[in-house]
Recover the amino acids of this structure.
């Protein structure tokens, strides 16, 4: 277990810069998820931490040691790869005990550790099988087993669930989280799936184009996104964005007026952000929305609507029986709405 | 074969396959059967597809007329060393070209491949001069050194490089995280997974060395040093006429190790293929 620090970490391939000075502080035992669209540099950051990519600038510190120039084996980390990277010619037990074997551990010690890890992950029955004889979920567990047998300072996960089907992904998500709660080892987890990030992380780092957009707890990012990118990326279905401008205490788009969350310079072009679940059916709400599609889910109703010609998506706890073309009158929970600068995308706060 | 063919179509397809098989099987059949025919029956007309008389003494005579056992051993040990040497060098070189970043790697690889374009007939005289200078004429050294450091090895290096390029990098990265250095990664991860490629390289290297003809007749002069392809031409009577039945008996014995190597290497080949994939 160890804290990890990225300070002003940069990466470039020749003249092409892909990571532009990243700072992240990860506390001992924390579960941190690096999330962002593909090409945002999250995997590169993880691979730099693992020692699989060189660092072009800045420092990476694991447990008070600058590891920039250390080989992966000297960093005391363990990594789970997206395609598991299990050695196909070795049994499950050999795969899991491989690193211990190469560190000169005794046979009894290796067996003890492998049995311990197999016990935790429910792999006892498969120890003599080859990876090719296992299902995707089992292989994923073996990859995790290989990581935990060594008791490293840091676990690294590089999109470990993206090769699994949706149902298994949910199961494995829970297992990884439970494993972290049991072992309390510092974990850095890379994913492009914001649901994984939200459900697993103590702290989420949202990356875009090699830069950090925001760092915070899952709900903090959900409730207080610093810009439109984070607001759009975190949360599923995504936040609605409506373009318009400010008039007094209201946000105005076309002939619709919505209550603005903050007092702002009048006339400024802004983007109004509201999550689907923060609309409510309210005859006094004053927002008219024309129904486009109604999708009853049973527990909730998802409705695609148009407000002043702009598509918005709402989720209602009630059953909505409106037909396409009908007009619903909505209210919004003003404390959960945001205004973003139309140019920079930054969230506007009260002056 | 497609199982949803009608019985009639099946018969037709298998019949056609049998006919197409004849040109491949007939020479071997002719070699084996003629090796036990008296020499007069070999040229009998109409040809005897199934021998009417059997004479197995030809196999004994092959050993009596020449140091055939010795020659057999020469071919076998040379081919074994050449195969092992080529496997080792081509695997290491192929891995280096596939995985290690070093200056001019691609240019160097191209230069290496150009070596394949030069026919061995062109280099045989300079090679003779070189080995003469090293005092290696009428020894087996040229037959070992030329293939291991020559065209067959270059081709093998090409095959190995292509294989290692296709091997998932994550396996090696996992091994690096597990604490292995470059050579151990090569030896314990990459090489065991390269079995199919190694099997293919082993088959063609062994065959190439076993069938080598030009080099032995250039470099070797004493019968006890001869290799099999060269020895086969030496079964002649007092007038220089070929003793066909004895020669074919020797040729039959020559073909056996090739079959054995093929069967062994082929199994490796299939086994290796079965668990190389990293399918998710």
């Amino acid at each position: 277990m160890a804290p990890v620090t990225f300070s002003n970490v940069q990466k470039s391939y020749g003249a092409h810069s892909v990571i532009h000075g990243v700072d992240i502080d990860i506390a001992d035992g924390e579960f941190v998820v690096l999330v962002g669209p593909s090409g945002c540099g999250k995997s590169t950051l993880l691979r730099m931490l693992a020692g699989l990519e060189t660092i072009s600038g800045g420092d990476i510190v694991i447990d008070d040691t600058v590891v920039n120039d250390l080989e992966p084996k000297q960093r005391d980390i363990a990594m789970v790869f997206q395609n598991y990277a299990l050695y196909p010619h070795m049994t499950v037990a050999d795969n899991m005990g491989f690193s211990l074997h190469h560190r000169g551990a005794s046979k009894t010690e290796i067996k003890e550790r492998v049995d311990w890890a197999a016990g935790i992950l429910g792999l006892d029955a498969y120890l003599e099988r080859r990876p090719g004889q296992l299902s995707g979920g089992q292989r994923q567990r073996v990859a995790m087993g290989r990581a935990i047998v060594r008791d490293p300072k840091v676990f690294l996960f590089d999109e470990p669930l993206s090769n699994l089907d949706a149902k298994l992904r949910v199961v494995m998500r829970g297992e990884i989280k439970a494993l972290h709660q049991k072992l309390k080892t510092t974990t850095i987890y890379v994913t492009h799936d914001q649901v994984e990030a939200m459900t697993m992380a103590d702290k989420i780092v949202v990356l875009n184009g090699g830069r950090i957009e925001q760092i915070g707890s899952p709900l903090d990012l959900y409730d207080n996104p610093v810009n439109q990118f984070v607001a759009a990326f975190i949360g599923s279905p995504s936040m609605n964005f409506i373009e318009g401008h400010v008039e007094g205490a209201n946000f105005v788009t076309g002939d619709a007026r919505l209550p603005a969350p903050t007092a702002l310079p009048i006339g400024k072009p802004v983007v109004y952000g509201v999550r689907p679940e923060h609309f409510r059916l309210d005859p006094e709400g004053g927002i008219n929305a024309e129904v486009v599609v109604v999708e009853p889910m049973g527990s909730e109703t998802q409705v695609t609507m148009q407000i002043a010609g702009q598509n918005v998506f709402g989720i209602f706890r009630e059953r909505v029986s409106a037909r396409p073309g009908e007009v619903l009158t909505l209210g919004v929970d003003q404390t959960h709405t945001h205004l973003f600068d139309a140019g920079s995308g930054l969230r506007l706060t009260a002056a | 074969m497609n199982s949803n063919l009608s019985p009639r179509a099946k018969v037709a397809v298998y019949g056609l396959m049998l006919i197409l098989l004849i040109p491949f099987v007939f020479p071997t059949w002719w070699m084996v059967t003629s090796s036990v025919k008296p020499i007069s029956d070999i040229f009998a007309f109409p040809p005897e597809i199934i021998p009417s008389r059997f004479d197995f003494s030809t196999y004994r005579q092959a050993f009596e007329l020449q140091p055939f056992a010795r020659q057999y051993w020469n071919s076998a040990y040379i081919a074994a060393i050449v195969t092992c040497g080529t496997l080792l060098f081509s695997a290491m070189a192929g891995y280096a070209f596939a995985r290690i970043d070093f200056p001019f790697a691609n240019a160097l690889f191209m230069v290496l491949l150009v070596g394949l374009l030069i026919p061995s007939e062109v280099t045989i005289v300079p090679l003779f001069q070189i080995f003469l200078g090293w005092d290696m004429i009428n020894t087996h050294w040229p037959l070992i050194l030329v293939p291991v450091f020559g065209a067959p090895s270059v081709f093998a290096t090409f095959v190995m490089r292509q294989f290692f390029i296709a091997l998932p990098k994550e396996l090696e990265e996992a091994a690096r995280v597990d604490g292995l250095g470059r050579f151990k990664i090569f030896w314990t991860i990459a090489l065991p997974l390269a079995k199919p490629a190694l099997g293919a390289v082993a088959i063609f290297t062994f065959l190439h060395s076993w069938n080598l003809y030009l080099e032995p007749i250039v470099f070797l002069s004493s019968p006890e040093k001869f290799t099999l392809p060269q020895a086969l031409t030496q079964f002649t009577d007092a007038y220089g006429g070929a003793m066909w039945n004895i020669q074919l008996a020797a040729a039959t014995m020559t073909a056996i190790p090739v079959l054995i190597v093929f069967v062994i290497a082929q199994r490796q080949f299939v086994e290796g293929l079965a668990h190389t994939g990293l399918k998710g």
